[in-house]
UniProtKB/TrEMBL annotation, chain A:
Gene3D superfamilies (alphabetical): Cytochrome C biogenesis protein (1.10.8.640)
InterPro entries registered for this protein in UniProt: C-type_cytochrome_biogenesis, CcmH/CycL/Ccl2/NrfF_N, CcmH/CycL/NrfF/Ccl2_sf
Pfam families: CcmH
Homology family: Belongs to the CcmH/CycL/Ccl2/NrfF family.
Keyword Signal included in the entry's annotation: yes
Taxonomic source organism: Marinibacterium profundimaris
Signal peptide: 1-21
PANTHER family xrefs: CYTOCHROME C-TYPE BIOGENESIS PROTEIN CCMH, CYTOCHROME C-TYPE BIOGENESIS PROTEIN CYCH
A GO molecular-function annotation: metal ion binding
GO CC terms of this entry: plasma membrane
Name by which UniProt lists this protein: Cytochrome c-type biogenesis protein
Residues annotated as domain CcmH/CycL/Ccl2/NrfF N-terminal: 10-152
TrEMBL record, chain B:
Segments forming domain Cytochrome c assembly protein: 89-295
Pfam families noted in UniProt: CcmF_C, Cytochrom_C_asm
Gene Ontology biological process terms from the UniProt entry: cytochrome complex assembly
Species: Marinibacterium profundimaris
Annotated protein name in UniProt: Cytochrome C biogenesis protein CcmF
Length: 160, 655
């Protein structure tokens, strides 16, 4: 067991420990600029991670991107210019907020369209219900009706 | 030997499931009582065999039987016992076995407590339930067999993913599966009703407890997962709109919609076909969730890395069951004519709106989740759909739902008046606007999310209290009557109040959290918000299967020490993975959340400090919601009418 322990410790030392999220040495002195950098970082995806933004990611690539964003901001780029700069190099895959251009309009419009359709269907149904005459036929035969009534009666006594 | 018996039991269960899926269905069609009666003993046998099989696998994990491939890949002899047990379902094969175990468990529950159902309906429900089991038994045996042996057993295992070695996550999957799979009961009832060609109030009353139980478990499962992400991933995020999270959230929303529409069927015999459709969709989305998690088609933080073969198999199961059920639905939906008549302003209309908001919001999440795949296949665009999209596209529906909730839940059935219903609600509205204004005034210049959260939270919470109080009637003795209100009334109020709390807490946390990142020198105090912190010392420690760097941080407020925190950075040498263990000072109104990072070249350590207001309220609200569901389950009418001597949730083995 002692040998195993030493192997464990050796392995632990060999394993490179990745840096974690935003490091103190990355933080810009100007708080306004830093705030902008944080906001931009939250919208950019870490390319080697599975589903994290670069602001939260521990990966080295994310750190490089964070530094890049800050570099561009210090040089006087606007937020949009920084995002465009990164997108030009890495493609729209880095954008966590998908563009509204091209086929993506379908994605953005999906919610409102589905809602309007559902609302229209719902309203038509509700109007129909409000106008419908009294039920013409019962879906149950006499025995079933009696049984259902018995159940409901029992509930009535039990409930309130 | 036990392993082989477990394997054998699984094969037997598969065979029993086939019999149970076929014989009772024929019996119900031909009205042969003997054939229909096969369903009950078969359901019990199936459950017992699967349970034995699962226990055999658990035994292999507990005894670290490294001749089993699965144990080698996911366990280690030095792992604490609790994680050896939870390791059974901390992997693809084992979790699928747990999945079918729960599936057969629900089938057995329906057999044991369904004696009050009409015999043909019961036979059909059990047969449909069993046909789902057949598909998943085949999936396990042919693509993901957990009982495969190693030709040469290794000396020790490769350990479980360290992120999974955590109490929150150990019990997250069982709850989630109880929820996912619980929806299979609603599905089986829906399909059986379609075969029978009849849906009525009694049917809705039989379905509702099962849906309610599934929804309760899903709520708890999602809350556990979110809480785990909060304390384990190291920056206190609680929801990431990750595909796997979405996979659990979509069925939750559909189950919530189903709960509400089943009330309309039960009380008013309207919305029948829609309710049946919802039952099919809710379980369909459970299957889609399973597909997303297992196929690896959509990248995610949590997904089990998997091969496409399994993905195709699950896709086939998904297509067969949802497609088949929807075809049956299309053929039979006209047979279910609505009976209830009601006005535009009524409880029924409000519940229709509730269903629209819940179903559409769930579909929005679905579109956002699969869009990257669609865009790549159809438009050759490689893109991401991340939290900013979901925040923008999903939130409006929640806001709309919260706005109509108190009014809708108090509107009378058939025909109501908005003015009359609003009468007792005006004070609540006034209070929520006043408090939101106060919050706005106190935090001028910050985002409007906080005040909005106060507004909606107080409105929904207060509305739930008013609703409950109004149920007690008038005059004296209201307090006494309050205690004796039926479980359903209490459940409704409590669940709605919980939702209000969660909405408020999420907004408050997002709007008002404070963050501090710095290099802390040992012994030098620094200030975050109203707190002074000192990094006292950093030491090394050893756990059972990890090495750890532990910081000791003393926290002061107004010069008085209030707590000491010990954030850790762990390294699991066997799994070769580091994890951060945040140290959190949990308080009622805020959490103080401290993470230790790396040692710096110039001396000192990276320390991150967060003040997170009302963090606990998020999960507190979820637990209260689940409690509301539980109270509703205790309502006497379910036991009387559904013939269940016990509520379905009782006696569920959660571990």
């Amino acid at each position: 067991m002692r040998a195993l322990r030493w192997i464990c410790i050796a392995l632990a030392l060999l394993t490179a420990l990745p840096a974690a999220a935003v490091q103190p040495d990355e933080v810009l002195d100007d708080p306004v600029l830093e705030e902008r950098a944080r906001e931009i970082s939250k919208g950019l995806r870490c390319l080697v991670c599975r589903n994290e933004n670069i602001d939260e990611s521990n990966a080295d690539l994310a750190r490089d991107l964070r530094l890049l964003v800050r570099e561009r901001l210090v040089e006087g780029d606007s937020d949009d210019e920084v995002v465009a700069f990164v997108t030009d190099r890495y493609g729209e895959y880095v954008l966590l907020k998908p563009l509204t251009t091209g086929s993506n309009w379908l994605l953005w419009a999906a919610g409102p369209i589905m809602f309007l359709l559902a609302l229209a269907t719902g309203l038509v149904f509700l109007r129909g219900r409000a106008r419908a005459a009294a039920p013409q036929e019962a879906g149950l035969n006499a025995a079933e009706e009696a049984r259902l009534q018995a159940i409901l009666d029992e509930d009535g006594r039990a409930g309130r | 030997m036990i392993t082989e018996l477990g394997h054998f039991a699984l094969v037997l269960a598969f065979l029993v499931a086939i019999v149970q899926a076929v014989v009772p269905l024929i019996g119900a069609a031909k009205r042969w009582p003997g054939w229909m009666a096969v369903a009950e003993p078969a359901a019990t046998t199936q459950f017992l065999l699967t349970a034995f099989s699962f226990l055999a696998l658990t035994w292999a994990f507990v005894t670290s039987d490294f001749s089993l491939r699965l144990v080698v890949l996911n366990s280690h002899s030095a792992k604490p016992l609790i994680y050896k047990i939870s390791g059974t379902w901390g992997n693809h094969e084992g979790s699928m076995l747990l999945w079918v175990l729960i599936l057969t468990f629900f089938g057995a529950m329906a057999a044991w407590f369904g004696s009050n159902l009409p015999p043909t309906l019961r036979a059909r429900v059990l047969a449909v339930q069993s046909s789902i089991a057949v598909a998943f038994f085949a999936f396990i045996l042919f693509t993901s067999n957990p009982f495969l042996r190693m030709a040469v057993p290794p000396f020790d295992g490769q350990d479980l993913n360290p992120l999974l070695q955590d109490p929150g996550l150990a019990f997250h999957p069982p709850f989630l599966y109880l929820g996912y799979v619980g929806l299979s009961m609603s599905f089986s009832f829906a399909v059986a009703a379609l075969i029978e060609g009849r849906v009525d109030a009694a049917w809705a009353r039989w379905v509702r407890p099962w849906t309610l139980a599934a929804w309760i478990f899903l709520t708890i499962g999602i809350a556990l997962g979110s809480w785990w992400a909060y304390y384990e991933l190291g920056w206190g995020g609680f929801w990431f709109w990750d595909p796997v999270e979405n996979a659990s959230f979509m069925p939750w929303l559909f189950a919530a919609a189903l709960l509400h529409s089943a009330i309309v069927v039960e009380k008013r015999e309207a919305l029948k076909s829609w309710t049946v459709l919802l039952a099919i969709l809710a379980f369909g989305f459970s299957l889609i969730g399973t597909f997303i998690v297992r196929s690896g088609i959509i990248t995610s933080v949590h997904a089990f890395a998997n091969d496409p073969e399994r993905g195709v198999f699950i896709l086939a199961i998904l297509a067969a069951f949802t497609g088949g059920a929807l075809t049956l639905f299309a053929a039979r939906a006209q047979a279910m004519e609505a009976k209830g008549v009601f006005g535009m302003i009524s409880r029924e209309s409000a519940l229709v709106m509730n269903n629209i908001f819940l179903a559409v919001s769930s579909m929005v999440i679905f579109v956002g989740t699969v869009w990257p795949v669609v865009a790549e296949l159809a438009f050759d665009r490689k893109l991401s759909v991340g939290p900013p999209f979901f925040d923008m596209a999903f939130t409006p529906f929640v806001i709309a739902l919260a706005v109509i909730l108190p009014v809708g839940s108090m509107l009378p059935w058939k025909r109501g008046s908005l003015a009359k219903t609003m009468l007792p609600l005006w004070p609540v509205l006034g209070l929520s606007v006043a408090l939101a204004g106060l919050a706005y005034a106190m935090t001028t210049g910050e985002s409007a999310v906080g005040p909005l959260g106060v507004l909606l939270g107080v409105w929904v919470f207060g509305g739930a209290l008013v609703d409950l109080w109004r149920r007690t009637g008038r005059g004296t003795g209201r307090l006494r009557r309050l205690r004796r209100l039926p479980g359903a009334d209490w459940g409704k109020a409590v669940a709605h109040a919980g939702l209000g709390i969660t909405i408020f807490a999420i907004c408050a946390l997002v709007a008002w959290q404070q963050e501090d990142i710095r290099v802390a020198q040992p012994g030098e105090p620094f200030t975050v918000g109203r707190y002074d912190l000192i990094l006292h010392d950093v030491t090394s420690a050893r756990g059972p299967n990890y090495l750890s760097t532990v910081g000791e941080i003393h926290v002061f407020r107004n010069g008085e020490e209030i707590t000491r925190l010990f954030p850790e950075k762990r390294n699991y040498p066997v799994a070769r993975m580091p994890t951060t263990e945040a140290a959190i000072d949990y308080r009622f109104l805020r959490d103080l959340y401290v993470v230790i990072g790396d040692a710096q070249a110039g001396g000192g350590w990276t320390v991150r400090t967060y003040i997170k207001p009302f963090a606990n309220w998020i999960w507190g609200g979820c637990i209260i919601m689940a409690l509301g569901g539980l109270l509703s389950l205790t309502d006497r009418r379910f036991r009387v009418a559904a013939g269940a001597r016990k509520a379905p949730a009782a006696g569920v083995p959660a571990e």
